[in-house]
Design goal:
The complex is a heterodimer of chains A (345) and B (311). Chain A is 40% helix and 18% strand. Chain A is of the alpha/beta class and 345 residues long. Chain A has an eight-stranded mixed β-sheet. With 311 residues, chain B is an all-alpha fold. Chain B has a single domain, classed as MetI-like (MetI-like fold, Orthogonal Bundle). Chain B has a two-stranded antiparallel sheet with strand order 1-2. In chain B, 40% of the residues are buried. The chains are: A alpha/beta (345), B mainly alpha (311).
Chain lengths: 345, 311
C-alpha cells in the first residue's frame, strides 16, 4: 500500500474522528487499531466489555491481516497494530520509533487429515511433518509414520499436502515450527507468512483448507486450533521437544507459554514453537498488539495502556469461552512491567 | 453551434477524457509502485518461474501461464455455447420463450463470484474429480492429463470461468445478431438459402461484433479472482496438465497482498498487477487489429456493428 494512500486514509480517518468528536463530549478518547484476524473475536469481546467499564474510551479494531496491521502501524495510520508474526528487524527499522510487542493471546496450529479408515487420532513428529511438506514422505503407510503409530493400520494412500494459499499468521507458526525441527526445511522453505511450497495444494483461509480436506481422502493440512475446535475437525497429536505426544488443548498451549516465559529475561516477541518442557504443545504462538514506546498522542497512550492492563488481567476471563488459551500469570507480570516503558506523559 | 451544444460537447468530452486519464493514472501508478521490483528483476520477471517470498526472489511466469491457460481454455468451452445461445434466442426461439431465456442467462452474470467459488468447491470439484479419476491410464501418461486426480486444478477453474463468461459473451452476441439488417436474411432466403444457411450468412455478417463479444468474455476471464482462487489450487509449479493445481495473477495479488510486509514483496505483487494490465492491453489491441483486418478484407461490402463499444 502506498504511503500516499495511507496518508489519504489517515486524513479521512481524522476527518471522521473530528466529526465524531464534535458529536461526543470532549473527554472521550478514540483509539484506532488494525491487524491480525486470529484474535479478532477476542479483541471485539474485550473492546465491548471495556466500553462498559470505561465508557470514555472508544477503541476501534479492524481485522485486516497481520501484514497490513504492521504496515498501517509503521505508516502511523493506526495507533496500535496487531499481528500473529513478530515484526522483522527490517520492518522495525522502517518504523519512526521503537515498538513494543505485547502478547495478548495464545494460539496454536494443528495438523488435520482425512483418512476415512483411521479412527484413532494419529501421532506426528516435527521431522515427519517437515518431510511430508518437503515432498519426501509421499504415502500414508511410510515407515516413518508407521513407526509413530504402531497400533494404526495406515492405508496405502498418497498424501495430498494442503497449505494456505494466502499469506497468513497460521502458515508462519507452522513453518516456524517445521524450520526449527528440520534444517532442510529451514534451508529449502524458510519462515514467512507466505512461502514457496515444494508440494501441495493451496486453500484460501482456514475454511478453504478445511474444505479441501473434507473432499480429498488422503489429504493432510493445518488449521488454527480455534477453527478446528469450533468446526469439530479431528486433529493429530504432535511430539514436543521433551519427546511426548501432545494434543493441542487450551492447557497444553498455555504450558508452552509458561515454559517460554520461565526463561531468564525473555523478549516479549519471542517465538514459542517447539518450546522445551513437559506437557507443552509445540506448535503454539503468541498473538501480539504493537505499540510505539513513545507515542505522540499522550491521551490515547494513557487510555491504551489502561485498556491493556485491564485486558491482561480482568480481560483474561473471556479467553476460554472463545477458545483461546489464557496467558500464564508469570508472563502477565512481565508484560505489566513492560507496559511502564510506554511514555504516557 | 449554440451555447447549449457547446456545453454538451464539452461535458461529454470531459467524461470521455476523464476515463482515459484514470486508465493512464492506473498505469503510471502501477509502474511507480513496482519500481523496486522492476529494478531488482528487470525483464527476467516475465519469464522467471520462482515465487519465493522468504528468499525475496519473484517471477511472474507461473501466474502469466495460469491466467492465460485458464482463460483461453474457458473461452474454448464458453464460445460455442454462448454463440449457440445467442443464435437460438435471436433467430430460432419462440417469442414467448425468448424473454425468460434471456433473463435467466443474464441472471448468471449477477451472481457474486464468491458464490461461484463456493459452488465450485462443493459441487463442481467433486464431479470433476470423479471424471478425472475415470480417465484411462493410457491417457494419463500424456502431459495434458498427468498428476493425481485432485479435482482442484486447471480444469475446474476453466469450467467455472466458462460459466461466468457465457452470459457476457452470449448477451453481446445476441445484440450483434439482432442488429443484422432484416434485408440480409431476406436476401439469403430469396436466393434459396435454407434456414441454417441464412443464419450462417448472418453470423458471417456479424463476425467482427462476435469477435468483440468473445474478447469481452476473455477480459472477464483474465481478471476473475475469487472463484478461480477457490478452485485452481494456488500452486506456483508450472504444468501443462489440466489436473494440476496452478495459479493466476489476480489470485496471487488477492491472496498475498494483505500479508506482504517487505517492500520488494509488495513491489513484486504490484508488478504482477502491471503485467496483468499490460496483457489486458495487448489482448484488447490484438482484438482491435483482428476486427479491423476482418472488416477490411470483407468480401461483403458491409459496415459491421462494433459490439465492444455497444456493450
Amino acid at each position: 500500500m502506498t504511503l500516499r494512500a495511507l496518508r489519504a486514509i489517515r486524513s479521512l480517518g481524522c476527518a471522521g474522528a473530528v466529526l465524531l468528536g464534535a458529536v461526543l463530549s470532549a473527554q472521550v478518547v478514540q483509539i484506532n487499531g488494525a491487524g491480525a484476524t486470529l484474535p479478532f473475536p477476542l479483541y471485539s469481546k474485550w473492546i465491548d466489555e471495556y466500553a462498559k467499564v470505561r465508557p470514555d474510551t472508544r477503541i476501534n479494531y479492524q481485522s485486516v491481516g497481520s501484514g497490513a496491521g504492521i504496515r498501517l502501524l509503521v505508516a502511523q495510520t493506526v495507533f496500535f497494530g496487531a499481528t500473529d508474526t513478530p515484526m522483522t528487524p527490517e520492518e522495525a527499522r522502517q518504523a519512526p520509533g521503537s515498538i513494543l510487542h505485547v502478547p495478548t493471546v495464545l494460539g496454536a496450529v494443528v495438523p488435520v487429515y482425512n483418512l476415512p479408515t483411521v479412527r484413532t487420532p494419529l501421532r506426528f513428529s516435527g521431522a515427519v511433518l517437515a518431510d511430508i511438506y518437503l515432498g519426501r514422505i509421499v504415502r500414508w503407510n511410510d515407515a516413518a509414520i508407521a513407526a509413530l503409530n504402531p497400533d494404526v493400520a495406515l492405508p496405502a494412500l498418497d498424501i495430498i499436502v494442503v497449505h494456505r494459499s494466502e499469506g497468513s499468521g497460521t502458515t508462519y507458526i507452522w513453518v516456524d515450527f517445521l524450520s526449527k525441527v528440520s534444517a532442510e526445511f529451514m534451508r529449502r522453505v524458510g519462515v514467512n507468512a507466505a512461502v514457496n511450497w515444494p508440494v501441495g495444494v493451496g486453500g484460501k483461509g482456514n475454511e478453504g483448507v478445511a474444505g479441501l480436506l473434507k473432499q480429498l481422502p488422503g489429504s493432510l493440512g493445518y488449521v488454527e486450533l480455534i477453527y478446528a475446535v469450533q468446526s469439530r475437525i479431528a486433529y493429530g497429536a504432535v511430539q514436543n521437544a521433551a519427546g511426548e505426544f501432545v494434543t493441542a488443548t487450551v492447557a497444553s498451549v498455555t504450558a508452552a507459554a509458561t515454559a517460554a516465559a520461565s526463561r531468564t529475561a525473555p523478549d516479549l516477541w519471542l517465538s514459542i514453537t517447539n518450546a522445551p518442557g513437559r506437557g507443552v504443545y509445540p506448535i503454539s504462538s503468541f498473538s501480539w498488539m504493537l505499540l510505539y514506546e513513545n507515542p505522540r498522542d499522550k491521551p490515547q497512550a494513557r487510555a491504551m495502556v489502561q485498556f491493556l492492563r485491564w485486558a491482561l488481567t480482568d480481560g483474561q476471563r473471556y479467553c476460554e469461552a472463545l477458545g483461546y488459551a489464557r496467558l500464564p500469570p508469570d508472563l502477565v507480570r512481565l508484560e505489566l512491567a513492560a507496559l511502564t516503558k510506554i511514555k504516557i506523559s | 453551434m449554440t451555447r447549449k451544444d457547446l456545453g454538451f460537447r464539452l461535458g461529454t468530452g470531459a467524461f470521455a477524457f476523464a476515463l482515459v486519464l484514470v486508465v493512464c493514472a492506473i498505469g503510471v501508478e502501477l509502474v511507480r509502485q513496482s519500481m523496486a521490483s522492476i529494478r531488482a528483476f528487470g525483464f527476467g520477471f516475465w519469464w522467471t518461474a520462482v515465487w519465493d517470498p522468504v528468499a525475496a526472489r519473484f517471477g511472474a511466469l507461473p501466474f502469466i501461464w495460469g491466467t492465460l491457460y485458464s482463460s483461453i481454455l474457458a473461452l474454448l468451452i464458453a464460445t460455442p455455447i454462448a454463440v449457440g445461445i445467442a443464435v437460438f434466442t435471436s433467430e430460432l426461439c419462440p417469442a414467448a420463450l425468448r424473454q425468460p431465456l434471456v433473463f435467466m442467462t443474464e441472471l448468471l452474470a449477477a451472481i457474486p463470484s464468491i458464490v461461484y467459488g463456493l459452488w465450485g468447491i462443493f459441487v463442481l470439484v467433486p464431479v470433476v474429480r470423479t471424471v478425472e479419476s475415470s480417465v484411462p491410464a493410457t491417457l494419463r501418461a500424456l502431459p495434458l492429463f498427468s498428476g493425481p486426480p485432485l479435482g482442484i486444478g486447471m480444469l475446474s477453474a476453466a469450467l467455472i470461468l466458462a460459466v461466468m463468461v457465457i452470459p457476457f459473451t452470449s448477451s453481446v452476441a445476441r445484440e450483434v445478431l439482432r442488429s443484422v439488417p432484416g434485408a440480409q436474411r431476406e436476401a439469403a432466403y430469396a436466393l434459396g438459402a435454407t434456414r441454417f444457411e441464412a443464419i450462417r450468412a448472418a453470423l458471417f455478417y456479424a463476425r467482427s461484433g462476435l469477435v468483440g463479444a468473445v474478447i469481452l468474455g476473455f477480459g472477464r476471464a483474465l481478471g476473475e479472482t475469487m472463484a478461480v482462487t477457490m478452485v485452481i489450487g494456488n500452486s506456483t509449479r508450472l504444468s501443462l496438465s489440466l489436473f494440476a493445481p496452478q495459479y493466476t495473477m489476480a489470485a496471487v495479488i488477492a491472496n498475498e497482498f494483505t500479508e506482504a510486509t517487505a517492500d520488494l514483496y509488495v513491489a513484486a505483487l504490484m508488478e504482477i498487477g502491471l503485467v496483468l494490465f499490460i496483457i489486458t492491453l495487448i489482448v484488447n489491441s490484438l482484438s482491435r487489429l483482428l476486427i479491423w483486418s476482418m472488416t477490411r478484407n470483407a468480401s461483403l461490402p458491409v459496415e459491421a456493428p462494433d459490439a465492444v463499444e455497444a456493450a
